[in-house]
Amino acid sequence: MELDSTDWALLATLQADASASNQALAERVGVSPPTALRRVRRLREAGLIAGQLAVLDEDRIAALQGHGLTVLAEVSLDQQGAAHLAAFERRAVRDDAVQQCYRVSPGPDFVLVARVRDMPGYQALAERLFTQDANVRNVRAFFSVKRAKFAPQVPLSGV
Q1: Residue limits of the HTH asnC-type domain (predicted)?
Q2: Average pLDDT, the chain
Q3: Among the four residues 54, 63, 116, 156, which has the most C-beta atoms within 10 Å?
């Protein structure tokens, strides 16, 4: 699929603010609303736009709920065969507490970012993902005390 400057501008604009109306999006990019709608539909159908969501402020939500703990965990498996890696990955991505799951190299086999309510919530996560699986050799968990930056945007070279 070939992308032109309008496609790249649409992607960049949507990535910055996916809540913009089609009219506002068209104005920001400098195209007509029907063109913006058609192009965004094409980008979505091509799989370049995976979805749209609202990014919530974890700390403010935690203040309302009373708790909140972000966990970064390095997970090493005993056996790293393709089937073993795939099995752990399937279990991790199915778990509601896991927000991000990366297969990495070198070092541990996986890095997980998880959000739990509190330490008992982390303990329950650890039992589900790490201690019940005989193939998990080592886990190093880190608990966030402050998030200084969160920028999930993908760098776009065509803009």
Answers
A1: 3-70
A2: 92
A3: 116
